[in-house]
């Protein structure tokens, strides 16, 4: 029986499970666990009683761990067998996307109470929706109903002052530089209270994007 078959047999005996369809990458998984805990090979050697050279060979798939070695890894690292046998997590790759919006070049969406300018409109499947808003409303009565949309919202006042009305709280006065984070499915509305129309920056995150 080959070393690979020895390993598979030992792991099946230990787990009582049928053979995995996907080949085990135990060495890669061991290294993932070690790095996640910021352990050196020396640290793992002290915890498990396995030589550093043996651990290095296991991680680099130069040897297959014996059943005894697997038991020492489980005991010394304080993990259970499924944790050790689970497939390594795929490494996330940075897509390197970016989307520049020059001043005034966003998509304009005027309403009776707001003038929205959607930003970063070229990117699809964004987790965040940024937009700048000129608050034209001057009285809460200008809104026929609460503004509400799914998700969460971060808002910062860029210019002027606003009154933030919300469904479950007393009105809140915000000035330039103030910011607030709130659940946007809660009814809300913004009103300018400064001499000039206030300008706010908002970033929304839909629930399904979190």
From TrEMBL:
Residues 85-94 have a biased composition (Polar residues). Residues 85-113 are annotated as: Disordered. The keyword Nucleotide-binding does not apply. PROSITE patterns: HTH_CROC1. Residues 96-106 have a biased composition (Basic and acidic residues). Residues 30-84 form the HTH cro/C1-type domain. Pfam families: Cupin_2, HTH_3. CDD domains: cupin_XRE_C (cd02209), HTH_XRE (cd00093). Keywords: DNA-binding. This is XRE family transcriptional regulator.
């Amino acid at each position: 029986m080959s070393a690979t078959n020895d390993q598979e047999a030992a792991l099946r005996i230990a787990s009582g499970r049928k053979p995995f369809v996907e080949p085990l990458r135990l060495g890669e998984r061991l290294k993932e666990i070690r790095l996640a805990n910021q352990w050196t090979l020396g640290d793992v050697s002290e915890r498990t009683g396995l030589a550093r050279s043996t651990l290095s060979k296991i991680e680099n798939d130069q040897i297959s761990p014996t059943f005894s070695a697997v038991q020492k890894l489980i005991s010394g690292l304080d993990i259970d067998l499924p944790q050790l046998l689970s497939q390594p997590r795929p490494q996330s790759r940075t897509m390197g996307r970016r989307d520049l919006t020059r001043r005034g070049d966003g998509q304009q969406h005027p309403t009776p109470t707001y003038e929205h300018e959607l930003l970063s409109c070229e990117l699809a499947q964004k987790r965040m929706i940024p937009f700048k808003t000129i608050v034209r409303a001057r009285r809460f009565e200008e809104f026929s109903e609460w503004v509400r949309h799914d998700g969460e919202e971060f808002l910062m006042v860029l210019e002027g002052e606003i009154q933030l009305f919300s469904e479950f709280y007393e009105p809140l006065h915000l000035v330039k530089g103030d910011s607030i984070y709130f659940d946007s499915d809660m009814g809300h509305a913004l009103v300018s209270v400064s001499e000039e129309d206030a300008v706010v920056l908002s970033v929304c995150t839909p629930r399904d994007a979190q």
